[in-house]
Design goal:
The protein is α/β, with parallel strands linked by helices. The chain has one domain: Arginase, Chain A (3-Layer(aba) Sandwich). It has twelve helices and eight strands. It has an eight-stranded parallel sheet with strand order 2-1-3-8-7-4-5-6, sandwiched between helices. The structure holds ligand V1P, calcium ion and zinc ion. Zinc ion binds next to loops.
Length: 380
């Protein structure tokens, strides 16, 4: 007799450092690490910790950060503080210290914590300790070898992928943050061992960081191993999810990745404070569900997300998806931050607005066609 297994259960590990939510970029700054405390709290109040292994990740060491970053840049991040910043002011332009990337109390600890969690998660995947690893504090995709950019100081994604490359032949990186994953793209632009795919808002250069045209396809050995899906404001659930599945399935079939890193930036949700897309938490989660269903080792990271109550909802819902656990739509009342989630107190508040989808059917069709044509170059 045959025993049909619809899907064998994937083992999930969850990395959360208790201090990661206590850092502050500054009062006016949109990046709020507190969203990580909110998320963790909601994950626990749904009881999801009972279905996965929860780790307090070790902080990344200086040497680990220098696997990608320049020694001088890491030394600078380690030494500079709000108090001594005058002594270092001459270095600010060089390292892109700015309004976006300000010096704040505990900056280096913050970097060590979120990068340590991504490296630890990568290590656990590679050593066969889990099938899926989650680090919602990671996904800071803009940081460059020797400079900060777009709220990102060290690039935990590049560090995690570099670690995975010691064990796996091909890494697929997928980025659904509304911003272009430029730092990860740049780091692996000339290699065929990492394929980077980013979906993002692109308006010929004015939306941050300004890159991510479909014409950016990789260089040298990496030519065609970089894919960009530029979109406009107002994209809705159906257009986004169907384009995502259409593109990413063809990527999988051509590239046949041995491991996947998924950056789940929640600023692609409707009503985000910086983004302009119009998608729901269910649609965002559907992208995660689709990748998970392939049963390929998976590292799941956070990223942007600037309406923090929705970020916490989204990443909690996606933790549930990764655990094959349906969550009741009413938020658990025993949650310490319950009041943050009014007036609806629901996991699925209405995020989708009556707004124009500036992506026309024919434009989306054209992007899909261009992507399939580019992927054909990966054959043979
Ligand atoms: O637009 C810019 C730069 C700053 N100007 C000189 C142009 N920066 C954006 C940065 C967005 C970073 C997104 C990060 C991520 O992809 C990953 C974590 O989500 C920016 C914006 C904006 N509306 O795009 N910075 C700020 N807003 C900002 C506002 C207030 C205080 C500090 C920064
Ligand atoms: Ca993106
Ligand atoms: Zn973003």
């Amino acid at each position: 007799t045959f025993h049909i297994q619809p899907h064998s259960k994937q083992k999930v590990s969850y990395f959360h450092h208790k201090d990661v939510g206590n850092f502050h970029f500054g009062l006016q700054h949109p990046m709020k690490p507190h969203r990580l405390t909110l998320t963790n709290n909601l994950v626990l109040s749904y009881g999801l910790h009972k279905k996965m292994t929860v780790y307090c990740p070790p902080k990344a060491t200086d040497d680990e950060l220098m696997e990608f970053h320049e020694t001088d840049y890491i030394k600078f991040l380690k030494e500079v503080t709000p108090e001594n910043s005058e002594e270092f002011a001459e270095d600010f332009p060089k390292f892109n210290i700015s309004e976006d990337c300000p010096i704040f109390e505990g900056l280096y600890d913050f970097c060590q914590i979120y990068a340590g969690a991504s490296i630890g998660a990568a290590h656990q995947l590679a050593s066969d300790g889990a099938d899926i690893c989650i680090n919602w504090s990671g996904g800071l995709h803009h940081a460059k070898r020797f400079e900060a950019s777009g709220f990102c100081f060290v690039n935990d994604i590049v560090l995690a992928i570099q670690h995975l490359l010691r064990f796996y032949p091909r890494v697929l990186y997928i980025d659904i943050d509304i911003h272009h994953g430029d730092g990860v793209q740049e780091a692996f632009y000339a290699t065929d061992r990492v394929m980077t795919v980013s979906f993002h808002k692109y308006d010929s250069g004015s939306f941050f960081p300004g890159t991510g045209n479909i014409s950016e396809i990789g260089y040298g050995l990496g030519k065609f191993f970089c894919l960009n899906v530029p979109l406009k404001d107002g994209i809705d659930d159906d257009s986004y999810v169907s384009l995502f599945k259409d593109v990413i399935l063809d990527v999988r079939d051509h590239y046949q990745p041995s491991v996947i890193v998924l950056q789940c930036g929640a600023d692609s949700l409707g009503k985000d404070r910086l983004g302009g897309f119009n998608i729901s938490i269910k649609a965002h989660g559907e992208c995660v569900k689709f990748i998970k269903s392939w049963q390929i080792p998976l590292l799941v990271l956070g990223g942007g997300g600037y309406r923090i109550s929705n970020v916490a909802r989204c990443w909690t819902y996606e933790t549930g998806i990764l655990l094959d656990t349906e969550l009741q739509p009413e938020l658990p009342q025993k949650n310490h931050y319950y009041n943050f989630f009014g007036p609806d107190f629901s996991l699925h508040p209405p995020l989708v607005r009556k707004m124009d989808n500036l992506n026309t059917r024919s434009e989306l069709q054209k992007i899909s066609q261009q992507v399939h044509e580019l992927l054909r170059f990966l054959d043979g």
